[in-house]
Amino acid sequence: MSKLKKFFYLNLFLLLLTTPAVTAFADDLPEEDQNRILAPYFFIEDGDPSTDQFPLKETDVKTNINGIIAETYVTQIYTNEGQKPINAMYVFPGSTKVAVHGMTMQIGDEIIKAKIKERVEAKQEFEEAKNEGKSASLLEEERPNVFTMNVANIMPGDIVKVELHYTETITSTDGKYEFVFPTVVGPRYVSPATDVSDDHNNFTESPYLMDGKTPPGSYNITVHLNSAVPISNVNCQSHKIVTDIDNNKALITLENPGEYAGNRDFILDYSLTGSEINSGLMLNKGGLAGENTPKENFFMLTVQPPERVTLKDILPREYIFVLDVSGSMNGYPIDTAKILIGTLVSSLRRTDTFNVILFAGTSAQMSPKSVPATDYNIKRALDLIEQEEGGGGTELVPALQSAIDIPRTSKDVARSVIIITDGYISEESEIFDIIGKNLGETDFFSFGIGDGVNRYLIEGIAKVGQGEAFVITDPAKANEEAANFRKYIQSPILRNIKVTYNGFDAYDVEPKKSPTLFAKRPIVMYGKWKGEAEGTIEITGTKGNGEAYRQVIQVAGAQPMENNSALPYLWARARVEQLMDYGTLEDENSMEQVKKEVTQIGLDYSMLTPFTSFIAITEQVRNTGSEAKDVKQPLPLPLHVSNNSVGSYTSGSEPGIAAVIVIGALTLIMGAVRLFRKRAA
């Protein structure tokens, strides 16, 4: 071997030797730097064979869907196969619409029903039990779609089962029903401007496995469908399934239970044959949602929208596309985004204007103001987008503000902002606040791209912005979704929606305000009622062609039933959503009032909220002396998300000595390559 080759391989060895030091650098930072910003990091095994690094061995999901109400039981099984006690934290997702109202923990033959407590109190009780050597589990809500499970003192050989129970509604769009069970929490980029002292940001520190690696545990999903009319067209675009349909019942299971299924959302579509489901009213009389809840009556109102009207004369519109080109979008997501935005921009009418903003760590804007949709300007936009590959942070807040600040060309032109992203950020509330303060002539639409997108952000953008949300998991469907977007945005189904209760004593109705209805999706409202089930509910509005719309529902046609037990939980979840999830608060006093009300709802309805948690503790002291090993359960990266989404050291900090070593090694290698080329010449 020549001296030059020896020199080259020596430096390559040095590079590989120093790279792990950079990967582990987040843990070596001074405490003040670690507190300054949180970031996900790659999991590195510590080489201790006596400690089991993967205590979560199995996740089993069973969902029963009756009509439009889904009830789900999630069982997580932890097994400590090591030789030391374990304290573990596991981060897992949920639907943005679920009301989590039950939790049990089983260790051996002992089954403990968890109690709902104020978050701070539950955390204190968990830490006390942990220090006393008792086994315990703590369930907390970090976001409406992100939860953390902490378990303490899992002894060697322990098998621990934790079961969660929650409820949600399933609605249809254009006659197609969709049930989504999120299985993975994607890595969250945390801006240096973010206040990381908030306890709800702790989950962003979660370690991740490298791209393509999955935990050794199993992930099972079973869905039972029951309907009053026959079920058809059952399809799952995310997983291979086995379907057994018997007229108005269906059983759906995974085709290969041995294949890991927990790295992309489980998305199940189905249709109901026969006549279309009509508007309807469900009543619950004297329902008890929790141990402390007074007896009240609840209702759920489902209103089918009118048929879509095709407008002959569509007013000119301005479209501002805000495209995420950050590291997590590298590869499949950004390739899909290019197809989507290319189709959207190319299909604009000559009377439309548009602009494009690309954002990662910084933003790039195609033009200071929106430009006509000419062939030349469309080519400019496509050329700008095509050169992007995906890299860097995800600074959506300044990019969105830039879109809003673009000067209007005309007051008569309706403006739409379209945000295309996977949503892997932690500043959801800031985004919702910006949108809420800029409503008026602007509608906000969102396209989520990926197999495990942040649906809280994607759905929230549309909900606050009075638009619609779209999620694309298959690049082949990008053109189809672009066509759906054009159909929705050009011809809204119903505006100026108003619901009036005549002779029916309804109160505490959620949501209080109905936005413009773009998609052919039912309006679902929850509320309470007093007295007799009588009178009418009148729904009025304006169709897309300007015609008046009116629908009347006879309350007496609905029979109050005590077994409609899900309605109290669904009302409570809708109320918390209105107060917390997408609302904007003007001052600290209002925040304190909201916190007080949300906390009380959680306690009254035995429901998980940002301020209430579930806690389960064994009576027996099980760990009498051994120090338990703290383990953060590493998460798999969502399918098709690359390693670029996870930083090699804490984001926002200086690279330090470890990075300098790598840079030096790279410099030496580059020098060797140049010398090699020079000699070869």
- Measured by DSSP, the beta-strand proportion falls in 25-35%
Shape: globular
As laid out across the biggest beta sheet, the strand order is: 6-5-10-3-2-14-17-16
Terminus-to-terminus distance: 19 Å
Give the biggest beta sheet.
8 strands, mixed
Instruction: State the low-pLDDT regions, or none.
Output: 1-38, 648-681
**Class inferred from helices and paired strands:** alpha+beta
Helix share bin: 25-40%
Radius of gyration: 27 Å
The number of distinct helices, counting runs of at least 4 residues, comes to: 13
Average pLDDT score: 82
Annotation, overall tally of beta strands: 34
Overview of this protein structure:
The chain has 681 residues and is an alpha+beta fold. Helix content is 25%, strand content 34%. The protein is built from 13 helices and 34 strands. It has an eight-stranded mixed beta sheet. α1 (3-23) packs antiparallel against α13, α5 runs antiparallel to α6 and α8 runs parallel beside α9 (455-464). The longest helix is centred in the last third of the chain and has 25 residues, at 656-680. It starts with a helix and ends with a helix.
What are its keywords?
681 residues, alpha+beta, seven-stranded mixed β-sheet, disordered N terminus, disordered C terminus
Secondary structure blueprint with pairings:
Elements: H1 3-23, H2 25-28, H3 31-36, E1 41-42, E2 56-66, E3 69-79, E4 86-93, E5 99-107, E6 110-113, E7 115-118, H4 119-132, E8 134-143, E9 146-154, E10 159-169, E11 172-173, E12 176-181, E13 207-208, E14 218-226, E15 231-236, E16 241-246, E17 249-254, E18 266-272, E19 280-287, E20 296-303, E21 317-324, H5 332-346, E22 353-359, E23 363-365, E24 371-372, H6 375-386, H7 396-405, E25 414-421, H8 428-436, E26 442-449, H9 455-464, E27 469-472, H10 478-490, E28 494-502, E29 505-510, E30 523-530, E31 536-543, E32 548-554, H11 566-581, H12 588-604, E33 612-621, E34 629-632, H13 656-680
Helix pairs in contact: 1-13, 5-6, 5-10, 8-9, 11-12
